[in-house]
Backbone:
């Protein structure tokens, strides 16, 4: 049966996709390096800041020391915090509040599994008054570069942590549903054997549909009365 709903963060909860390439471009400019928006879109969207900065710097011939990378990540986090303060209204995706209400009515557990830095997540949830809506957050700050999306590690780690919090939950990937909007996130969930709803909030519907277990245009189209029966024992409707 379905027990837990996992949320991605950027592209699922908060519409901040334009600010991240801008902040990375500023970091690279300060390092006398060129930012390529097409490269970012094709290769790094949906990956953690640590993973994509590491890859971008390495492709430009830089030796990436951990202390050097940590400094860049702090600068990016400061830039993101400044951007948040400048927003008169936080750009949450339409349908999020309704979706969370319907999840609560079903008594599903919720958790965030994201490649975002924890500071970014905490600030957005606090500003949106959503902190109490999620039982757990597993962020890029908790994972190594190798373990970041599209690797399944963050999803599997979240399952392990939820089971530690409540051993009676006996959670497996087959009890979970992921909501993702980026290819890396969809791939990570499916690699963890977790069915995934792809939401076409970043990429067109037809591109999401080819990758996710199920696809919708908007969050309010996610129908648990239709999805939940596909988790029942003996159902063959959940296909990876």
Residues:
């Amino acid at each position: 049966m379905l027990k837990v709903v996992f949320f991605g963060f950027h592209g699922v909860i908060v519409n901040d996709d334009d600010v991240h390439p801008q902040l990375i471009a500023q970091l690279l400019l300060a390092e006398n390096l060129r930012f390529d928006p097409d490269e970012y879109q094709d290769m790094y969207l949906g990956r953690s800041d640590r993973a994509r900065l590491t890859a971008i710097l390495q492709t430009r011939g830089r030796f990436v020391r951990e202390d050097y990378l940590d400094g860049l990540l702090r600068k990016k986090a400061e830039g993101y915090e400044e951007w948040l303060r400048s927003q008169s209204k936080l750009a949450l995706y339409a349908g999020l509040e309704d979706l969370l209400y319907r999840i609560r009515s079903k008594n599903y557990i919720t958790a965030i599994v994201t490649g975002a830095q924890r500071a970014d997540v905490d600030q957005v949830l606090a500003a949106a008054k959503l902190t109490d809506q999620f039982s757990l957050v597993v962020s890029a700050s908790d994972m190594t570069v190798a373990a970041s999306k599209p690797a399944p590690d963050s999803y599997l780690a979240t399952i392990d942590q939820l089971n530690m919090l409540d051993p009676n939950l006996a959670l497996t990937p087959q009890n979970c549903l992921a909501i993702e909007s980026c290819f890396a996130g969809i791939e990570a969930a499916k690699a963890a054997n977790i069915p995934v709803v792809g939401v076409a909030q970043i990429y067109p519907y037809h591109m999401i549909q080819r990758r996710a277990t199920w696809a919708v245009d908007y969050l309010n189209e996610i129908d648990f009365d239709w999805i939940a029966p596909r988790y029942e024992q003996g159902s063959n409707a959940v296909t990876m």
DSSP finds ten helices and six strands in the chain.
